[in-house]
Amino acid sequence: MAQMRIKDIAAEAGVSPATVSRYLNNRPGQMTEETRARIAAVIERTGYRPRAAARNLRSSRTNLIGVILADIANPFSSAMLEGLSASAAARGCSLMTAISGSDPAKEAESLTRLIDAGVDGLVVNTCGGNDEAIAAAAGRLPVVLLDRDVADGGVDLVTSNNRELVAGLVDELAAAGCERLCMLTEASDDSPVRRERAEAFADELSRRGLAGEVVTLADGGATGVGRLDKTIRDYAGKRLGLIAVNGLVFLRLTEALAQLGPSLPAGLKIATFDDYPWNHVLFGGVTTAAQDTLTIAERVVERLSERIDVVTTTVGEAAKLAPKRIEVPGHIEHRASTSR
Amino acid sequence: MAQMRIKDIAAEAGVSPATVSRYLNNRPGQMTEETRARIAAVIERTGYRPRAAARNLRSSRTNLIGVILADIANPFSSAMLEGLSASAAARGCSLMTAISGSDPAKEAESLTRLIDAGVDGLVVNTCGGNDEAIAAAAGRLPVVLLDRDVADGGVDLVTSNNRELVAGLVDELAAAGCERLCMLTEASDDSPVRRERAEAFADELSRRGLAGEVVTLADGGATGVGRLDKTIRDYAGKRLGLIAVNGLVFLRLTEALAQLGPSLPAGLKIATFDDYPWNHVLFGGVTTAAQDTLTIAERVVERLSERIDVVTTTVGEAAKLAPKRIEVPGHIEHRASTSR
DNA sequence: TCGGTTTACGAAATCGGTTTCGTTTCGAGT
DNA sequence: ACTCGAAACGAAACCGATTTCGTAAACCGA
């Protein structure tokens, strides 16, 4: 018997397909302990597995969650994927993933491809440029944004508490005796996340009456390094503190500093976002604002599940959930780069 | 009209559902240019999208490729995922991903979950311990192994040309004047990849008449670092060359060396597998055996497609493809850590 | 013992495409 | 003009589950 169907199981167990279906989905309409056992035995013996396609067709539910990631090279993304995978599996869902490579066209294409595939919901770590399409998608199926918001803001978002993390890093640098602080960003990055961190940085400075500014590195080119060199030279010996706005910028910073020697120039303190494994090692350890990726992933799936349940439960457009912004606290890893 | 069905399109275009289906799958049974245009117009106007579940049910093809990755934190894996995503998308397929986290139990669970979901084929980067289950799966649907082989070897495998890469690194270190070479490995890693590299290393040494050995770091514990320290001390000043067998071991190595200072001890040369972004920066640049992840991914999907086509085309068990081993050449990135 | 309600389960419709098979139409060859 | 084969298309079966609706049995209090 190559492939068994539910009716074969039903026949063997002496019940109807409907009853087997009820067993498979352990439905409220309870069955005798005896029939349950009989069905279980047959399934066990035959190794029967229901065909997902048939199930999907009738129930219009796939137990699939679509995930669109902008940049998988970013450890934040890969950690997130692992977390999402685990959280989804815990709910019996699988992940369909698409990598946009930070290309808006690919992102848009992934969006329609995943929706066409029939995913129950969508997790989007957008690279920007598709705000309307994403908002439209959110109108047709459950969508939760990951880390990066869209313009009109009518979509659920899960993100780190960036303002607190910025404050934490500023604390570190101030405690290390810095008189002046710079936040390093990248020219091409105009994401809401970057903006939020930059704003928080400015707020923190003014709140404490510290001097400082946001410095843009021009995408790894000589310009950026030159500007950075200048910044450092201008303030060398004057207790300058640097914050890399994300892991990528930190990499650029490291490359630039490498030209000056393997250890930090005297009086220079640095800190960064995103906890890469190498942060333990570089400069004897770099103080890091670490995001709680596992919890973020869990919240994303949790929220998505809520929406999916609402969609499949309620009849009309009755109970539309209001869009929600969920902030997950991260924490500061204190390391040698901000010791006194 | 909430959701259109194929029969609605057919009605609007004045043809039968069968014809619309033929149009959607542009079947050999050609149709008049006129009907084709009429159908196209209706679909364009209504924005009709066929339901994947229905299609899957009847055709028992999902255009889904299952991917099981052992360790997504490894940049090799995330690069691979990006490549697979692109190659699959180019063939109109989506990816279902599962992350085993190097846990054999999770891997086994992912295996059944993806198969139950009805994927057309499976890409497995196994963490080991499921060789029989994987071989069994390969008997039921197309499977291509990624990087890591299974015991009995009856399954397709795509991997880097590890022997050549090892030879390349030995070349580098020899050219840098090393008199003695050590390959650093991790105790817990008994993968075929590690073994292959270790064997190639031994072969290269004897071929050139160089002294050297394989040193096992005990999983990041003090033992490993101690043993490493001893190794280095024993040979310091004697032109020792170190090869980290993979990125993780290189990280451990870096941590250990960090205790000795930010630059390499005099006369010590190092090289590693796996090109992380940080390899440019650490020790002024670390010579690296880089794998061609994009090509590997492309080959994997290519091979999987071949198998999928065979399965859906041939009637019986007629044309079984023989298992194939595909080696993709990588290349050596020469950097400062192996300069004379 | 009897109406009424719950519980356990079966028959059959249904989801929305694809595929098989048959019919009609069209064009070419003689 | 007639036959024949291929091309274009339609009718209906089909994929394998879920779900609705209905019914018989079991239960239950009065």
From TrEMBL, chains A, B:
GO terms for molecular function: DNA-binding transcription factor activity; transcription cis-regulatory region binding. This is HTH-type transcriptional regulator KdgR. SMART domains: HTH_LACI. Coiled coil: none annotated. CDD domains: HTH_LacI. It comes from Collinsella aerofaciens. Keywords: DNA-binding, Transcription, Transcription regulation. Residues 4-59 form the HTH lacI-type domain.
